[in-house]
């Protein structure tokens, strides 16, 4: 067993619609990883090694595809067999799921749950809806209902429809699949939709009742993550937003590459600072070209532990994006700096995405003083960032706005800065 906090599944949507909670109402921090071929190309042993590794790093959700055929550009005409040679459907037909194949899925879902992980399961890859139309308006509801019934008492699941495709022209197939899942599991599990590059589920389905939260894929457009996430977070009705797929660490195909650990960290921090959540990915997680060790030891993937620990060290669910923290030096595009502030104005979290200088409006913290702490997003190293008067609560009618220059510590590629407000005794 890993040393995670015990989570009471299933996860739900918070009362204000902005984040996830566990079954008892405690805030649940979504930190995802994609392993699209988890149920197919990973051997049962490798799948368990991978799940254990990610649980120990603090990940909370793993995204994988039940009917997988090689990934975009590499798909086989029918979903491929798993490592034991079993195919997900008999005769390549979703109306006849293969029970033997799903017994292996059952075992992985159970193992994941024992280790505090949710499996974000895609019933099918989008290729089998849009490209070859194996899943149709006629059979989608039945397949969804079968899955929903099979897993209705399995709490550590989230359903992800789509699969690297937009639904245009096939919206009804998606709605039928969602309807079948809902009928089968009675609404126990959350449902979202995974689109393809630079799109969001919100553009197609935001107002529909079955879509519990939004998922964005930015692919290579990683400098657009902050505005993309913030846009979805502003929509009504309010729904949580997950950056479900960005640019994968070490992936060779991205025009805005190379995708270094620094780029991985920027993607995660921007998604969070804009009011959303992040799912990470590594080239080998879906290409499966090399041994598993490259996935297990990937530096960007490991650094997500620092990301999660830093953000969850404060009441993150009570923080809102606040770019007004910056008086100067906010940056843009690939070097955008981003901030969040507690709604009660007692604390702020700032992410500096490069070596830079910023002038911060520390008077946005409404206490008398503020104490700063630097955290290196790469290593977790902490440094004192000083103690300052904010200009608030001085007894004068108008507050004196205090602004302070901060500089990324020497030799750090990026930096997180926590500003904690306090009133001297």
Which tags fit this structure?
single chain, 425 residues, alpha/beta, TIM Barrel, Immunoglobulin-like, 2 domains, nine-stranded mixed beta sheet, 11 helices, 22% strand, elongated
Folded structure, characterized:
The protein is built from 11 helices and 21 strands. The protein is α/β, with parallel strands linked by helices and 425 residues long. It has 2 domains: 12-312, TIM Barrel; 317-422, Sandwich (Immunoglobulin-like), CATH 2.60.40. Helix 1 (44-56) runs parallel beside helix 2 (99-114), helix 4 packs parallel to helix 5 and helix 7 (225-233) packs parallel to helix 8 (261-273). It is elongated and about 75 Å long. It starts with 11 loop residues before the first strand and ends with a strand.
């Amino acid at each position: 067993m890993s040393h995670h906090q015990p989570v009471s599944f299933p996860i739900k949507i918070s009362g204000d619609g902005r984040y996830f909670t566990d079954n008892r109402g405690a805030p649940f921090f979504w930190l995802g990883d994609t392993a699209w071929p988890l149920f197919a190309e990973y051997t049962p042993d490798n799948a368990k090694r991978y799940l254990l590794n990610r649980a120990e790093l603090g990940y909370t959700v793993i995204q994988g595809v039940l009917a997988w055929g090689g990934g975009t550009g590499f798909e086989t005409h029918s979903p491929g067999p798993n490592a034991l040679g079993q195919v997900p459907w008999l005769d390549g037909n979703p109306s006849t799921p293969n029970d033997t194949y799903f017994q292996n899925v059952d075992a992985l879902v159970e193992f994941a749950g024992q280790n505090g992980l949710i499996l974000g399961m895609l019933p099918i890859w989008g290729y089998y809806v849009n490209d070859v139309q194996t899943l149709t308006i006629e059979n989608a509801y039945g397949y969804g209902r079968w899955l929903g019934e099979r897993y209705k008492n399995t709490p550590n699941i989230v359903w992800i429809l789509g699969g690297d495709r937009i639904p245009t022209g096939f919206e009804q197939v998606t709605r039928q699949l969602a309807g079948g899942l809902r009928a089968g599991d009675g609404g126990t599990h959350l449902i979202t939709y995974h689109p393809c590059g630079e799109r969001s589920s919100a553009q197609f389905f935001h107002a529909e009742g079955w879509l519990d939260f939004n998922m964005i894929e930015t692919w290579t457009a990683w400098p657009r993550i902050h505005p993309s996430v913030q846009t979805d977070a502003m929509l009504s009705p309010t729904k949580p937003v997950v950056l479900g797929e960005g640019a994968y660490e070490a992936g060779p195909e991205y025009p805005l590459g190379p995708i270094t650990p620094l780029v991985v960290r920027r993607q995660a921090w921007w998604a969070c600072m804009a009011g959303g959540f992040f799912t990470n990915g590594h080239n080998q997680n879906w290409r499966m070209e090399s041994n598993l060790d490259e996935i297990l030891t990937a530096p960007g993937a490991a650094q997500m532990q620092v990301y999660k620990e830093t953000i969850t060290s404060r009441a993150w669910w009570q923080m809102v994006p606040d770019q007004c923290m910056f008086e100067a030096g906010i940056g843009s595009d690939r070097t955008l700096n981003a901030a969040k502030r507690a709604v009660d104005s007692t604390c702020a979290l700032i992410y500096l995405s490069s070596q830079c200088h910023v002038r911060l409006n520390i008077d946005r913290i409404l206490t008398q003083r503020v104490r700063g702490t630097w955290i290196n997003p790469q290593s977790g190293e902490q440094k004192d960032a000083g103690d300052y008067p904010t200009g608030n609560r001085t007894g004068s009618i108008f507050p004196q706005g205090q602004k302070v220059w901060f500089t990324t510590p020497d030799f750090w590629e990026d930096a997180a800065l926590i500003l904690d407000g306090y009133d001297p005794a």
